[in-house]
Amino acid sequence: MAEALTDPRRRVVQQGLISKTLTAAAKAVQWVLFSLVFSIIIEWAGMVFWWPEEGIEHSRAMLDKEISYLDTDFRRSVVTSDPAQFAKRFADNTYHYLFEVTRFVAFIRWVSPIPALSEQGLRVTLHNMYHPIAEFVIAMMQVTQVFSVRLAILTLAMPIFLLFSLVALVDGLVQRDLRRWGGGRESSFVYHYAKKTALPLVVITWVVYLALPFSLHPTFIVLPFAALFALTVAVTASTFKKYL
């Protein structure tokens, strides 16, 4: 066993750039889907326990509110010249491909009408199964649209993370040079901890905002997390080892 472990012919398999990129993309898609499923479950739970009197109107009001944020506060963006139109088009395309191309909307329209007294067959059975959960299905579709609008908003807001991180990186490197020439102590623990915290902050930003069961201006989510992300970048740069 010891010989096998010390055998110089054994090679450690490391991921290349392409495999790392694909792994990161797969994890990002996984977290996005998790946020979507979680937001739908929260909306269903709210329809039962927290806002039963609103029903599907809650998700519809959320969709209107999210779009109003775009119309009033997102007039310019680095990503696109018309942020509101970009988000609306993204939400419409999501609805089209998820529900219209898959014929899900056509199925609902077919199964929703009340069967005639003399009607028999599969549609009657499916209608009896669909009718009790009709509002939950519609709420799921509306929450998916809310989710797509928020996804577009986050895409438009990502440059702020880059801007904050650039400022923080410059400040951190200045602090590193001051520590280097001033004989200050360096802490590898703080460096590695801050380095590992940066990426999860971006993921948490997406998960929290996408899964919110109520409408909240994206500024209250994006700016605090962008500031925390910049702080981790500054700490990582300032605690980087003195000599390469």
Q: In words, what does this structure look like?
A:
By secondary structure, this protein is mainly alpha-helical. It has one domain. It contains nine helices and no strands. It is elongated. The two termini are 37 Å apart. About 2% of the residues have low confidence.
Helix content: over 70%
The low-confidence runs, each spanning 5 or more residues with pLDDT under 50, are 9-13
What is the terminal-to-terminal distance? Answer: 37 Å
Could you say which overall geometry the principal axes of the C-alpha atoms support? elongated
Largest sheet features = none
How would you state the average pLDDT, rounded? 79
Assembly form of the protein: single chain
Order of helices and strands: HHHHHHHHH
Number of domains: 1
Strand content: under 5%
In angstroms, what is the radius of gyration?
25 Å
SS-based structural class? mainly alpha
Total of helices:
9
Q: What is the number of beta strands?
A: 0
